[in-house]
From TrEMBL, chains A, B:
It comes from Flagellimonas algicola. Transmembrane segments: none annotated. InterPro entries: HTH_LacI, Lambda_DNA-bd_dom_sf, Peripla_BP/Lac1_sug-bd_dom, Peripla_BP_I. Signal peptide: none annotated. Coiled coil: none annotated. The keyword DNA-binding applies. This is LacI family transcriptional regulator. Keywords: DNA-binding, Transcription, Transcription regulation. The keyword DNA-binding applies. CDD domains: HTH_LacI, PBP1_LacI_sugar_binding-like. Residues 6-60 form the HTH lacI-type domain. PANTHER family: HTH-TYPE TRANSCRIPTIONAL REGULATOR GALS, LACI-RELATED TRANSCRIPTIONAL REPRESSOR.
Amino acid sequence: MQTNNVTIHDIAAALKIDSSTVSRALNNSPRVTQKTKQRIWAKAQEMGYQRNVLASNLRKNKTNTIGVIIPRISRFFFSSAIEGIEETAFENGYNVIMCQSLEKLERETNLVQTLVANRVDGIILSISMETLDYEHMELARKNGIPTVFFDRHCDIPGNNNVLLNDYQGSFDATDHLVSQGCRNIAHLAGPRDLKLYQNRFNGYKEALEKNGLPFQPDLVIDSNLMEEDGANAAQKILETLPQVDGIFSANDVAAVGAMQFLKGKNIKIPDEIAIVGFSNGPTSSVIDPALTTVDQSGKKMGRLATELLIKQINAKPIPLAPETIILEPTLIQRDSTQKKPTIHPNT
Amino acid sequence: MQTNNVTIHDIAAALKIDSSTVSRALNNSPRVTQKTKQRIWAKAQEMGYQRNVLASNLRKNKTNTIGVIIPRISRFFFSSAIEGIEETAFENGYNVIMCQSLEKLERETNLVQTLVANRVDGIILSISMETLDYEHMELARKNGIPTVFFDRHCDIPGNNNVLLNDYQGSFDATDHLVSQGCRNIAHLAGPRDLKLYQNRFNGYKEALEKNGLPFQPDLVIDSNLMEEDGANAAQKILETLPQVDGIFSANDVAAVGAMQFLKGKNIKIPDEIAIVGFSNGPTSSVIDPALTTVDQSGKKMGRLATELLIKQINAKPIPLAPETIILEPTLIQRDSTQKKPTIHPNT
DNA sequence: GAAAATAATACAATCGATTGTATTTTATTT
DNA sequence: AAATAAAATACAATCGATTGTATTATTTTC
């Protein structure tokens, strides 16, 4: 194994001083006189010294690394969250180890182990759809590694969370549909095992009730909210639920799938059926008509999660009281819900 | 600093054996008898032992970590590339450290330093728009860290690359526009400093020539290919280049921007102006009419880049001959270029 | 059953930086 | 100039696992 790397010992030998002095000089410790520092810095430069972070980390028992586990990077929401995470981490001198659970609990468990073994200073996590118990997080807790959940969280107490007020977002979305005149609003729901989708469902339901509309269980269509699921849901609606005049989808992807299907069947959006999505993903503003949606501000969540995590890391070994940050969502109104005021035809 | 962590020495002491035997047992070395292994494994489990990967890495001078530097995670192409990188890395027991250059050379330089200091086993890189010289890559080379460029590469010899045949993709795209009857095809070009955009430009130009069409420099509109740039280009075309009947954009984002603008001006796509993009991003299939585009297969590139990198890592210390993998692009034909066969009106 | 061969385990150095303590050097005071 | 204080540097242990070599225990061979 080639190790042509320069160490502090090499520098020390070259200058006939002790390696501890070299170490202190390189860390700009006040215990080394300026003159000596200059010599050491010059020599280090000359010899092409590069600190071995592994050795440093081992000794200091700190890696300046944050581990991130998310279901899937290529989803827009997650990639924008990571963007925020990476930027904040970089600003604070942390590296980011990126992992995907691919919605599998087994992989997630595996990854937590790897991150713990790698002694990351903290973990940011958005759980997989399969994650119903949280035993695997015990490992991080036992090893004193602070953890922050974002978006897809779990409801065990004592956690740090950065969340969107999904309930409110859905409430607003549904309320908006009602205000546009919709009376039979279908809901494309995600797996209710996830708190997040449960909250979106609740927001939908309670917005109906608050507006004096009946909650109709058969208007709730469950799926994993893929594009195809949206299309299937739309088909089901056309074939068996003719009364539906509005759709609130728990994500944009399914909403787009539904829209594409409806457009293919020449259904007028929003006039016959109005649609609202959730996420404000890149497709929502591009589709025609543009999709009304709830902004999920992934980058901001990533930023906040990282800031919270670093706060917890710095507080070690006495952990701060766990904190939950809840972002208020914004409804982005676009054409998929702007029903034209009803005008009598032929006048 | 709390270090309530169990080490191999603790296990050794508990069993009154030597730590080296424990280490070998945990690594399932044949030098330890099965019976002893069993005892050690049981004790390790019982004491909640977790290998300290830092120490192991330091000793072995290997981190099982790959560093990735890309311009921006939230771009669809890059996030899908990372998806492929992470999956392949995971399968091979590697972790991935993720970094964004945010299109800044300074940050990129900084990140290479960090990765080298962290002794990553290899680096996967897609350079920033500012990266015109490659001195910062010397550091990786000098430290014997294998590197693979993907998509945005540089043309210094001796590099490993995983690239798309951008020339061919653009050629096919332009050729397709010609075959649809376009005779004055504008090109939304990216920064020509990047080899990749130069290749796309060349493909465009040569496809024209091959079809006996004149190359008209004023039909090339340079920009950074943001959505707004696409819109501006479209405006310029409407105002000053009325002869244009087709647009080949060097990416989807600008193509979408242009389309939105043209649609706003009631220009018929593809009949008045046909459009082709590049990337096959998520918006291309959603926009109306759906955008014809060149598939960039980010995930596949990520996979291949990682496989190539791991091959190079395993070949150490004698590096394999550098390899360049070029993927052939696929033109995805959609409605933005399907001109209806010309039929005389009113017949 | 002694000698040789093999298996199993112990010893000790090492990876490279950090850090508490000890020692030497320099500066200050009387 | 001696005594004290303060500054600068050296010594040595340490982080936790790995690994070449040495030693002890066991098995095989004649």
